[in-house]
Amino acid sequence: MVDPVASIMTHCRACGSDRLFLFLPMGDHLPANMLVRPEDAGQPQPGFPLNSQACLDCGMIQVADQIPEGFFRHYLYIPSGAVTMHGHFEELAQVLVEKAEGGLIADIGCNDGLMLGFANRMGAKTLGIDPAANLAERAAENGVEVHVAYFGPETADEVRAKYGRAKVISTTNTLNHIGDLAGFMDAIGRLLTDDGWFVVEVPWGRDIIRTNQFDNIYHEHLSEMSLRSLVRMAERAGMAVQHVTYLPVHGGSMRVFIRRADMVTDPSEEVTRMLAAEDEAGMTEQATFEGFADRARKVGEELHDLLGRLKAEGASIAGYGAPAKGNTLLNFFRIGPETVEYLVDRNPLKQGMLSPGMQIPIHDPSVIAERKPDYLLVLAWNFFDEIRTQLADYEAAGGRFILPLPFPKIVE
After folding, report:
1. pLDDT tens digit string along 302-335?
2. Is residue 262 classed exposed, middle or buried when 0-12, 13-18 and 19+ CB atoms within 10 A define those classes?
3. Which of 76, 161, 218, 261: CA 20 to 30 A from 7?
4. Are 127 and 145 in contact (CB under 8 A)?
5. Is this structure's pTM higher than 0.85?
6. Are residues 105 and 12 in the same domain?
7. pLDDT in tens, 278-287
């Protein structure tokens, strides 16, 4: 347990504003990917307050940085388990290769090297940067070179001295893990060529609010970003947003293209359009976040009612996926193995472990065919179309899916 004061931020990490509004305190949570070994079941686990705050100047949702030092040096999330991400990263690689024009592509938070593997096959010069040594080994098996380190000014200088500047620096679903955005942007400035591109992919805060994605908030996701927050962040670093592309992946994301300010004349029409959409959604208004919090609590009430009714009828319920977002949902709503008997996940690094907090066993998806649960609560709802296709036989045999968001429902 940390000092409660440390769990509350006083200034926005993107724009520096002191207009932060605490709208959804979710109690103590473990880091969402801190899975539990079976032999440690029942042992005390460290919990940290998960207090969601919104910046009323730039619209960014954020939580205080309480992740234990070195947490990301052994990481359990990998994108390769989802077929959807293969196509997504192949398309991103093509975009980055075109922007690089033969120069170095440096991918921060490269994970198992899935995206850079595609870029390599397109003839690009690449380098991954990631603190997770276990994932760097997987990347190396796929022919991707990884500099194992947290990214900051010192690492940027080391990489620049050894490899030269990068024409393109990319980071996908990593910038939202960074506590010190000013230091991170300083490092970007050191490594990027004068005419280079910094390309960021993160979930779009507008869609998080619109579709009740409170489960995207967890200690590892320090920030859920609006486009305006990235505009302000770039400005503070002497850079500017040139263009943005909306992406349907992960429940609605954005791919943001940032350059040094002297390289940007007018932002694209899409930047103007998406900023206007954020204004229309009220992303700098306190009432917007109060409504978001009310809906999140209502999701919990309705999900408890639905699962309770099904259990009373004698139904068996399992969960599909053990993603970080799923652990936020399970812990916030206190849903444990007495209700959801087990989880399945295609990631072998998670199989055989217990979920953090609720300590629900995690198995290989093959147990679905063996145990034939009546219902599957889809915690990895952002990949539901893919999951449903993979489990066509389960559904044909009478198995049913439950989607928790935007409000709980049994899929017809």
Report:
1. 999 999 999 999 999 999 999 999 999 999 999 9
2. exposed
3. 76
4. yes
5. yes
6. no
7. 999 999 999 9
